[in-house]
């Protein structure tokens, strides 16, 4: 492993200054991706900037509207144990509680999971379904980006040199709405998604689908939204017929590769089945069944 210096800034301003000082810098949150990559020589840096002591990146706050702001370096276990997350954002628990095991969840962050930009990362489709946005700070100031626009390719994201992902904002869910995330892995736990689906459903006063989002993981170079699935759901009764149409749209939108974890045909099939089941589970959540 190439030798590097370690810095532990105590403020966002200090972290930004370190990131723009001209050295080849990388950020460290939980280290569950970056330490492995440095050790294997897949990445190199002269300066590793530890973000775990920057207050904006290490806290969870709930705004007056019920919106959630999760610091990018907050460990996953702290997120899924948070009482407001458990009560109001169970789809975040769906995703955060299946990333690795307890040891990984006690270190790894949502910010790191997003920045690492694996097409199979579990937090991405869940946050897309929830309509999350990202607060990004850099040398030119702050900007906000919808999470869906963050992924630019496998292992690549929209951060510019010197920029830091500060936090993830999740808007409050309106009444009669819910989100759900799940994945397929060939064993019960500790594996990377062969395919995954995150969905959001909102019903109007007549019980018809007023809004919907369907996001897929591990079936394209980046996590993807399926606009045709949304179109297949809007204005319809929530149930088997509408969900089957959305599942078919998900299957058609999937552009997977064959690899050691799954074939193209299996992943397309999974995109359909996982989407139908995620919609069924979101509907159960709206109806208070889980
Ligand atoms: C045994 C094991 C099992 C795993 N299982 C799963 C799984 O089931 N599902 C899954 O999705 N993932 C899984 N992972 C990967 C998962 O742990 C990581 O993706 C994790 O979420 C990354 O978070 P981190 O805080 O550890 O990031 P780090 O490793 O610290 O950083 C990851 C990358 O993001 C950059 N970065 C981090 N924070 C910021 C920031 N705030 N701003 C800018 N750049 C930043 C770093 O420089 C680095 O490039 C597993 C990993 C291991 C080791």
Could you walk me through the main structural features you see in this protein, from its secondary elements to its overall organization?
This protein folds into two domains: 5-170, Uridine Diphospho-n-acetylenolpyruvylglucosamine Reductase, domain 3 (2-Layer Sandwich), CATH 3.30.465.10; 177-287, Enolase-like, domain 1 (2-Layer Sandwich), CATH 3.30.390. Helices cover 33% and strands 24% of the residues. The longest helix is centred in the last third of the chain and has 23 residues, at 264-286. The protein has helices at 12-19, 34-39, 76-81, 83-88, 90-96, 102-105, 110-116, 123-129, 227-233, 240-253, 264-286; strands at residues 5-7, 25-28, 47-50, 60-62, 68-71, 133-138, 141-146, 151-153, 156-157, 164-170, 177-184, 195-203, 209-217, 224-225. The strands form four sheets. A five-stranded antiparallel β-sheet has the order 4-5-10-6-7, sandwiched between helices. The protein has a four-stranded antiparallel β-sheet with strand order 11-12-13-14, sandwiched between helices. It is an alpha+beta fold. The chain is globular. A hairpin with a 5-residue loop joins strand 4 (60-62) and strand 5. It has eleven helices and 14 strands.
Quick structural gist:
The chain has 290 residues and is an alpha+beta fold. The protein has helices spanning 12-19, 34-39, 76-81, 83-88, 90-96, 102-105, 110-116, 123-129, 227-233, 240-253, 264-286, and strands at residues 5-7, 25-28, 47-50, 60-62, 68-71, 133-138, 141-146, 151-153, 156-157, 164-170, 177-184, 195-203, 209-217, 224-225. It has two domains: 5-170, Uridine Diphospho-n-acetylenolpyruvylglucosamine Reductase, domain 3 (2-Layer Sandwich), CATH 3.30.465; 177-287, CO dehydrogenase flavoprotein, C-terminal domain (Enolase-like, domain 1).
